[in-house]
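[scheduler] slot 2 assigned
[scheduler] job type: sequence-to-structure, two independent chains
[scheduler] chain ordering preserved from manifest
[runner] begin chain α
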Amino acid sequence: MSKGSNLHPSAAPSLELVAKLETESVPFIAKAHIPSMFGDFRVYGFLEKQTGKEHLAIASGEIDARKRVNLRIHSECWTGEVLGSQRCDCRAQLEAALRHIAQFGGLVLYLRQEGRGIGLLNKLKAYTLQDHGLDTVEANHQLGFEDDMRSYECAVEMLRFFGISKVTLLTNNPKKLEALLARGIHVNREGHQVGQTPQNLFYLKTKASKSGHLMCFGDDEDKR
């Protein structure tokens, strides 16, 4: 290292990290202990090389790959998680999942896929269209997107890092089930319907009727 360098020797990337960056599509980069209001977590950071997005695996308790692991795959929602928006159920779902793994152990995979994959700025545009009468799916279509642009390949790669092949998945979204099953992961589903408000009821019912989310409502108890 040159005398003029400000890089501490320990800050230089290891040969192992360099190899992972070259060969893995979603390599593990770093880990830290994070005490939170929901519990004490170990947070693992991953880099999705194709998109440059930084995803997190939030772990609680022992992650024993020989056993079935509690799992929530959660996509980032700035409006819900930061502002406490009542337009969606995202913050309630995230907080319920964190409490669940804090009590029973497991993982929350936090994926940087804002706005069901269309990004925050396009999400704001979609909200404006919804304010003018479109539903969440119609608004996405109006902007030139599919109703859900997310991919769960990164989640599969993150699970492989832990050697996990059997999960209890907290979800209402059949696409998450299908993505894991297609990659050989055995899945038991546990419903995760929380955070319903008068402001987001139409949104939730649209996800159920148009995107196939497995949800039920007080006036529709036979929908499973």
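[runner] end chain α
[runner] begin chain β
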Amino acid sequence: MNGFADYRRMVMEEINKSLLLIDEREFNAFLKELLERRRILVVAAGRVLLSMKAWVKRLLHLDLDINFVGSETEKPVGREDLLIVASSSGESIFPVGAAEIAGKAGALVAYIGCSPESSAAKLSDIKLILAGRTKLSRPGEFNSAQPMSTLFEQQLFILGDIIALCIMEAKNMGEADLKKRHANLE
């Protein structure tokens, strides 16, 4: 690699290749639950949480009751709710623990990550498996030149925008509808 142009090309190619590998049936099942559940909470750690906070912000604009675990305004989950566990490895302690608790409370648990046989995946009712590396660098992971779970984090951010477009279409919403729920003190 030789500088900006090569890295830009490599990163964009990895994002494109990995997004094309998402199983559309898994995606549609996940989207259906997002639209049908009363309340949605997301749990993640580190940079993955930053990507998921972008989901929360945008999906609030789409009038979904969504928040992240640990927020000062977090509500409890129960039978009508969805917990989204985002973790490339599926082994991060806090997200796995939240999945256990949410499952016991009767919430539907959805895993988004790169490890279909992980602890988080096994605790989940539905899965959306993405191609990417984990911090564990296991054999058979997607061959990304980017460090650790960077590609997964990038996919999550973009996937959130794809989901927003799908929800806009399903709810027959336009940009004006989103602007009504957008912050106005910026």
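[runner] end chain β
[qc] chain β: Helices lie at 4-20, 24-36, 46-61, 93-104, 119-122, 150-170, 175-179.
[scheduler] slot 2 released
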